[in-house]
Design brief:
By secondary structure, this protein is an alpha/beta fold. The chain contains 18 helices and 25 strands.
Length: 541
């Protein structure tokens, strides 16, 4: 691929309007969902501009693709009140429904969501610059996650459908919801990662106040109607606008029972401290990460380069699970860098709809400027950009930059770049990467590339007490979704997976009675006449 020519023509071509993923007109999101009503907003709107730029005379501008309501504290409080009323202190329709009834509602929502697939995929591409393949994968993975969650709940329900007898006490143990959940997802996976918290919280009987991420808002337009059709009034309520204006006041009421947030630890700290009842608030947080890879001198070079390219540059490195630091043994560093740079040069760059594109424009405002400053700081402290065209900027596009050698004096060594900058630290002693991991504020994952089982075993035993996932000869990643996803230190709070998420948004609750004839007869009558949704031995096949 002629990188120079590709960079020169970036943003020069306009998508063919006949393409199935063309955006023919701006999407103006006028409605928001509160108490089962789609209310039309009459106030100010926030404009949405794509990372895709279009030529305007002698300059380029980010293409305007839509707008969404800039709600105020008043509308946010109305959404919260609707959720509180729907939950009704645990006595509302939704929390007292049977598991089977809640599953039917989620299945109806899924049916409606599938009808909107093309629109959602299109908006993911245009609003956050994700390639068409990655956008389709995000949608399909979300569908699979919802289906797997339903199956996991059925299994949990089967396990909970029996009585436990111990020391003269008979009891039934089930999981009960917390109440009102404030759900906020990230822009990089605006559908998938949002729904990995929203769906399990919802299906377990909680009610939701949902604020879409700062980028990736417009894709939810058809899903508002899907929520409205599938769930009782007030069970799902949406809040649009600036977080400081609408989220802070919600937390300050003390009526949020659980916070599901995926974003930065800085924002999470602010939100938690705004809540006046910290012991009441249950937090499920997916936060920052600075995942390293350790590439030993005996690593399979082809494998290490291939996995490092995927780990550092999938969706432009804009993943919390991305590899954000490479520790490469100094004996193989020159060859590794040469191969890594060659691999980057072979990557297709361009617009999200182009076939097999890998590197696309960045959606965040000023992101290319921030990454440029990161690179310049590294250069001042002794690093070089060792790949051709590395760090080249064209409007919202940033060509991947490989920095070497990186040291502890550079910001690239310390901060999460969340973009296509690849810092490489040479090492001769394993204590160098181990010290980095121990001293880091983050503790999500690490990758080890090595062929020696004895060395791998030793490293694993050291690293499992520092991070929550050790990947052997593979990139850092989330999934399969059946596996736990969490982190130590400032990287996470709580554990997510298909089954763990059901537990994360609930608390174990039990009904207990002394095992005597009177109590046995009471429970028999409740079971026989189907008087309670909690005390029940029925289960879903």
């Amino acid at each position: 691929m002629d990188v120079r020519a590709k960079l020169a023509q970036m943003f020069q071509e306009v998508i063919d309007p006949s393409d199935q993923y063309a955006l023919r007109e701006p999407v103006i999101q006028k409605e928001y969902l509160v108490n089962g009503e789609l209310r039309e907003w009459q106030g100010d709107f926030l404009e949405v501009r794509s990372p895709i730029c279009e030529k305007k005379g002698d300059h380029f501008e980010r293409k305007r693709i839509g707008a969404f309501p800039q709600l105020t504290e008043k509308e946010a409080q109305e959404a919260l009140q609707a959720a509180v009323d729907a939950y009704q202190n645990g006595c509302g329709v939704w929390p007292t429904m049977t598991v089977e009834e809640r599953i039917e509602c989620v299945e109806q929502f899924l049916f409606e969501m599938l009808e909107a697939k093309q629109f959602i995929v299109t908006m993911i591409m245009w609003e956050i610059g994700k390639s068409v393949d990655d956008a389709v994968t995000e949608f399909d993975r979300t569908v699979a996650y919802i289906r797997d969650t339903i199956e996991a709940l059925k299994e949990l329900d089967r396990q909970s459908s029996r009585f436990v007898k111990e020391s003269g006490i008979m009891a039934q143990i089930r999981r009960a919801p917390f109440g009102v959940v404030l759900c906020m997802g990230p822009f990089n996976y605006p559908l998938n990662e949002t729904f990995t918290t929203l769906i399990p919280a919802l299906i377990m009987g909680n009610v939701i106040v949902f604020k879409p991420p700062k980028l990736g808002v417009l894709l939810y337009q058809p899903l508002l109607k899907a929520f409205q059709k599938a769930f009782p009034a007030g069970v799902v309520n949406t809040v649009y606008g600036r977080g400081a204006k609408v989220v802070g006041p919600l937390m300050e009421t003390g009526r949020i029972d659980s916070l599901a947030f995926i974003g930065t630890s800085k924002v999470a700290d602010v939100l938690k401290h705004q809540h006046p009842k910290p012991h009441r608030l249950k937090c499920i947080l997916g936060l920052d990460a600075k995942n390293p890879a350790i590439i030993m001198e005996d690593a399979d070079m082809d494998l290490a380069v291939r996995e490092s390219l995927l780990g550092t540059l999938s969706f432009n490195g804009q993943r919390c699970t991305a590899i954000k630091m490479l520790f490469v043994h100094q004996s193989i560093a020159p060859e590794f860098i040469q191969r890594l740079s060659a691999g980057i040069r072979e990557m297709n760059i361009g617009m999200p709809w182009e076939p097999e594109v890998k590197i696309t424009p960045l959606p965040e405002n000023n992101k290319t400027a921030d990454l440029t400053k990161l690179v310049e700081d590294a250069l001042r402290h002794g690093a070089q950009v060792v790949n051709e065209f590395g760090g080249t900027v064209k409007e919202t596009f940033f060509y991947p930059a490989v920095l070497f050698p990186v040291n502890e004096h550079m910001k690239a060594y310390q901060v999460e770049q969340f973009g296509p900058v690849i810092p490489i630290v040479p090492f001769s002693e394993i204590e160098t990467p181990l010290h980095y991991i121990i001293e880091s504020n983050f503790g999500q994952q690490v990758s080890i590339f090595c062929r020696d089982p004895y060395r791998i075993a030793t490293l694993v035993d050291q690293l499992v007490n520092q991070v929550c996932r050790v990947n052997i000869n593979s990139q850092c990643q989330r999934g399969p979704d059946i596996l736990p996803f969490n982190g130590r230190k400032d990287s996470a709070e709580g554990t997510l997976s298909v089954s763990d998420a059901l537990r994360a948004f609930t608390i174990r609750t039990l009904v207990a009675a002394k095992e005597n004839n009177t109590n046995k007869e009471i429970i028999r009558t409740i079971l026989k006449d189907d008087l309670s949704s909690f005390i029940s031995t029925d289960f879903i096949l």
